[in-house]
Design brief:
By secondary structure, the chain is mainly alpha-helical. Helices cover about 45% and strands about 0% of the residues. It contains three helices and no strands. The longest helix is centred in the C-terminal third of the chain and has 18 residues. The N and C termini lie far apart (about 60 Å).
């Protein structure tokens, strides 16, 4: 007889394809050199994150695989921005400026 496990309703981390996240990690390493470790956790405006995510998405749609500045895949930048956005929405609601209609400059 084997032991009991009560895993119903728990996250199934085995569904994540970790090799697909390698571009994300490389972008995070690049960001650590450019800004600092965990810079994004200090707080980023959600609209700026979304703008960046869209810039990388549109570049990828235009058949540009790698970001000219970092030399890293746009897909890694998209993943990083999606992670930053999720973090801000879940942990820093004071940075959620999606309803702000004013233009932001980067």
């Amino acid at each position: 007889m084997s032991g009991l496990r009560h895993n119903t309703g728990k996250l199934k981390w085995s569904l994540v394809d970790y090799p697909s996240l390698e571009p994300l990690v490389k972008v995070l390493e690049f960001g650590t050199e450019k800004y600092s470790a965990e810079n994004s956790k200090r707080g980023l405006q959600t609209r700026e994150i979304i703008e960046s995510l869209l810039r990388h998405t549109y570049a990828l749609l235009e058949n540009e695989d790698n970001d000219p500045e970092s030399g890293l895949p746009h897909v890694g930048h998209i993943l990083a921005n999606a992670m930053f956005l999720s973090y801000m929405i879940n942990n820093k609601p004071e940075y959620d400026n999606r309803s702000d209609n004013s233009r932001t400059t980067a």
